[in-house]
Amino acid sequence: MSLTLADLGENQILEWLEKKFKPSRDVKMGIGEDCAVVRIGREEVTLKTDSMVEGRHFLREHPSRWVGWKAMARPLSDFAAVGAEPKWAMIAISLPRNLTRSYFLGLYGGVKRCAEEFGVEIVGGETSECPDRIVMSVVVVGQGGNCRRKSSRENDAIVVTGELGGSYKTGKHLRFRPRIREAKWLTRNYEITSMMDISDGLAIDLPRLVVREDFGFCVSLERIPVRKGFTLEAALKDGEDYELLFTVSPRDYESLEEGWKKMFPQIALTKIGYVRRNGSKSFSLVGYQHFVD
Amino acid sequence: MSLTLADLGENQILEWLEKKFKPSRDVKMGIGEDCAVVRIGREEVTLKTDSMVEGRHFLREHPSRWVGWKAMARPLSDFAAVGAEPKWAMIAISLPRNLTRSYFLGLYGGVKRCAEEFGVEIVGGETSECPDRIVMSVVVVGQGGNCRRKSSRENDAIVVTGELGGSYKTGKHLRFRPRIREAKWLTRNYEITSMMDISDGLAIDLPRLVVREDFGFCVSLERIPVRKGFTLEAALKDGEDYELLFTVSPRDYESLEEGWKKMFPQIALTKIGYVRRNGSKSFSLVGYQHFVD
Hints:
- The structure is a homodimer of 293-residue chains.
- In chain A, the strands form two sheets. Chain A has a six-stranded mixed sheet with strand order 1-2-3-6-4-5, with helices on one face.
- Chain A has helices at 5-8, 10-20, 64-82, 101-117, 167-170, 172-175, 180-189, 202-210, 232-237, 250-263, and strands at 27-29, 36-40, 43-53, 84-95, 121-129, 135-144, 157-161, 192-197, 216-219, 244-248, 269-276.
- Helices cover 33% and strands 27% of the residues of chain A.
- The longest helix of chain A has 19 residues, at 64-82.
- Chain A has 293 residues and is α+β, with helices and mostly antiparallel strands.
- In chain A, helix 4 links the parallel strand 4 (84-95) and strand 5 (121-129).
- The first copy, chain A, folds into two domains: 5-144, CATH 3.30.1330.10; 157-276, Phosphoribosyl-aminoimidazole Synthetase, Chain A, domain 2.
- Chain A is globular.
C-alpha cells in the first residue's frame, strides 16, 4: 500500500519541504515562515502566495464580494504576521464556465476593495477553467517584515490580539480585517521576538510559534480571549481567526499594553502566558490540520 | 437569464480586467502583458503567476515529475516572453488527500528540477486540500524584461521559434524548455519590438500580438513551421507550443537570423510574415480559447 498525503499530515509535509528546498544566502526568510523575504538587486522583497478552495475556505452561497475580500485578506494577514508592508498583488483564478457574470464581478469587486483598503495595487493575474469548483490564488508582493516564528526567548510574554473562536459561524472568516496596521505599529515600536497569524487555531498555531527543543509554552486557559457565545474549545480549535499571536519581553509588554489601548482601543489585547524552558509542547485539545482526520 | 463566463469569453474578461485595474505610475507593465513589472524601492521587479488545473492542463496519468516540470516551465515561458530573468518561485498547490506520497514527491521533484535548470530558487508556497483534482499555481519573481505585446511597428517582420502543432500529442506540452536563454539573447542583441509566448495557438496569439486599430498581420500560411506529421490547422490551433513569437525590423532580421543559426543551430527560426497597415485582423481558423466553445 502506498502512503497518501493524509497519512503524512501538514506538519510532516512542511518539514519535508523545508529539507528539500534549502535557502541560499539571498533568502532572508524562506519556507516555514508566513512570508518569504528575498534579495532582489538592492532591495529586500517580501512575497506570499495563498490559495482558497471552494467548499474548503468558502461556499458558493457566500456573497462573492466577501469571498473576494477574503482571498485578498488572507495573504495580507501573512504580511501582517511578519510585519511587512504589502504593495502589489496578482490573482490567479480557476473557475467553472457556468459561473455567472455577476458572481465574477462580485468576486473581483471584493478583491479590489480589500486591496485598495490596504494600499495594494493589482497588477496581473490569470483566469482558467476548473469544472467543479472555484480555486483562487492570490500573490502579494511588498517590502519589510522580519518577524519570524520560533525566535522567541525564554520568559517572553505570549500575546494575542482580538477574540478567538466562532470565526466561521459569525462570518468573521470572510470579513476580517488583516492586522496590517496593528502589526506595523507593534514592530515599529517594540521588539517583537516572534509573530504569526492564527489561521489553524491557537491549539495548532501556538506550538508552531514557540515550541522548540528547549522551550515550550505556559498558558492560562482562563486568559484565552474566547469570543462571546463560544467555548474555550472553539477558541482553541476553530481556526480562521486571523489574529496576531506574538511574543515580547515581559518588561516591554507593560508599555506595549498601554500604547495599544490608546492606538487600538476597540481591539482586545491579551497576554495569555509565557515562554518557559519546561513549558508545554501542545494543547491536549487538537485543532484543525489539513490532511489529518 | 444571467450571463455566464462562457458567454463572455477570455478576451472580453481580459478587457474588463484591464479597465477595472488601471495601472499607477509605479507599474511599468501590468494586466494584459505576459508578466507584470513594478517598481519596488530602487528596483524594477518582474512578476508572474500561473495556474494549472488537472484535466485541463495535465492528466493524472501523466508522470508527476513532468507535471511538476510543466507547472514551473509555464510561468518561466512568460518570463521568456518579456525577456526577463527569473530568480525566485513560490508554489501553491491544492490537492486531494488520497494522493500518494510518491506522486507528491514526483511533482515537487519536477518543479525543483525545472527551477534549478533555469537558476530559480523556490522560497515558499502552500498546500491545501481540493477534493476532486490537483490545482497548482506557481509564482515567479525576477528582474528585467521590457518586451510588450502590441508594440510592433509597421512593416516589422513577424518571427516564430521552433515548430508549432502537436504539442499535446507529442508530450511537448509537459517537457518543453522555456525559451529563457533564447529570449535573453534576442533582447540583448536586437531591438525586439514586441514579443509573447504561444500558449493558445498562433491563430489566437498572433492577433493578440499585432492587431491594433491601425495594424494587422500579413502571414504566408506556407511559411508557418508546422511540426512534422501534423497539419497546418494543428500548428495554428493546438496551442501549448511555448515558442516565442516576436516582431523585429526587417533590416535587423537578416543579422538576427545569422546570429541565431550560430547560437541556436538546433532550434528553427522562421519569418512568417509582416506587420502591415492593411493586414489581417484574424485567421479564419480559430484556436483554443478558454470559456468559449
